[in-house]
Amino acid sequence: MLHDYESSTAQSVTALTDDALEKANQLVDGVTTHGGTHTYANTVAPLEAAGTILADAYGAGAFLGRAHPNQDVRDVAIEAEERLTKWGNDVISRRDLYEAVKAFSESAEKETLPADRARVLDEWLRDFRRAGHQLDEGKRERLHELRTHLIELEVEFGKNVDEWQDHIDMTLDELDGLPPEYIERLGEGKAPGTYRVTMDYPEYTPFIQQARNREMRRKLQFKFWNRAKAANGPLLAEAVKTRQQIADLLGYATWAHYAMEVKMAKSPDAVADLYDSIIPGLEKRAAAELAALQEMLEQDHPGEQLQSWDWAYYANEQRKRDFGIDPNEVAEYFPLGEVMEGMFDITSDVFDLVYRRIEDAATWHPDVQVYEIQNADNEEPIAYFYADLFPRKGKYGHAAAFPLVVGRREEDGTYTKPVAAILANFTKPSATQPSLLKHGEALTLFHEFGHILHFCLTTVNERRFAGFETEWDFVEAPSQIMEHWMWQPEVLQHFARHYETAEPIPADLVERLVEARDLHVGLGTLRQVFLGKFDLSLHSGDGNVDLDRAYRAAYTYTQLPFHEGTAFHTSFGHLMGGYDAGYYGYQWAKVYGDDMFSVFRDEGILDPGVGMRYRNEVLARGAERDAIDHLRAFLGREPSSDAYLENLGLR
Ligand SMILES: [Zn+2]
Description:
The protein has 651 residues and is of the alpha+beta class.
């Protein structure tokens, strides 16, 4: 029942996409040609069914654009993704479909719909409105054109980032500060005796944190913050302009107003209020954090000022000096296999699950592992997920969860089980070591696994509400809440074991890790504020942006001097991958994630009672109701920002 990805070729991806589009078109055309009165069954249901066919086609074909090892497969899969996305735009722009759905919405049957179907209908009407069906034909056509253009820009941007290759070849001297196991994993440079440091996270991040050579840190960061710059700068500027043209035609003040209308925040003012409530306190904290880092820098470089390429390095030095935390030593207690097992153990207990590795699944690459998730009480399989965790040329370079099959109730009453994938870029095994995760990588794994559980534990009937299809500024709550477990001493001691000796992680090391957790929470959160504010500044104006100026202006939130000549935004995939006027959602959702975790903290972090309540009221419910209703049901009260502010040290 799992798709055979091993046999995927460029031809098969194109063929299955063609086939899906043809079937979807037949269904959709049937909505306007049946000649009878409009019912749910002949109007809304076929539109939904067509969407399901395309969602399946995405998971079996287009998804491989981010993951397949062969360039030719990736290329056609990206094309397929573009075709599928454009199809959605074509459908929502069609006048005859709008009229059919509208006719149904005025029928007597509409009054008798069960709640979830009434909600499906509401979303169709809402999306038709947001496609401009209240406007004249000329404007509607223009909107369709603009959206088509926007889809092309976004696809192109993402592809440029994924396919970007850059590196610096370094001598052994220039790698001073990095441990032998890091150097052992590097490829050879062009000149004999040099080592190639690429833009992959497992090579970039430790270098920026641990390399003593300040100039090489600057150079590597410069390259990393200029990925795909020449091609993507113009694409981003064009997308911002196009979005504002859409907002203008639809009568919204800005794209941010348009985007937030369908999110929890509802309006940019609410987001501004959230930022206002944290920025002054964070700036105060950051000033003290910076002073300590500056002092350390001056011991090495008298009279110099701390720069952006120094932050991670001296932060690491400070954790070493004040807490005795060596990231490479910590990683020895986080072999990937043990971390996965630990994550499974904890979530088994808390959410009443069992995991089973599927050895013989046909995947797209030998690195990929596949797991079945079962309900513990009856050992019934409920979902599957793929874990593709190491960097590869041309693969999606960040970490994210992808929908392969969306859960839903079929016409015959059976439930189609969800299938998801994590794509990430963690430290690979080497000749002498297994994959040893840095603490930050283990946190990322927990985060992405939160998305997987959200997607996989769905019980929603309607495909469009299943999995992580919640309001998009809530979607990072189920992921960020998972990170909290990684900081609990009893959790760490349960699974973190030395890769050679199998000794559990020493209690005092755990204590020091937890103690050092908030050492740079001011600077760290302000970096998130910078990214969110930058996104909002692009999408809160008239659409004509000077990217460089906007970027520099927002960068001041980081409290660090600007790195001249860099353009991080040209590889900032969120801005062109669904988080436009939405990056704020990480902080917005963290408020709720922290609030929900405070219930676990009070009632027991491994308490299955709370766990099942969270599973049933939040994870299982998708977008079947508004996120605020999940929160009220789980919390038994109105949500509060107390835990969030406390975690930021602002309360
Ligand atoms: Zn996430």
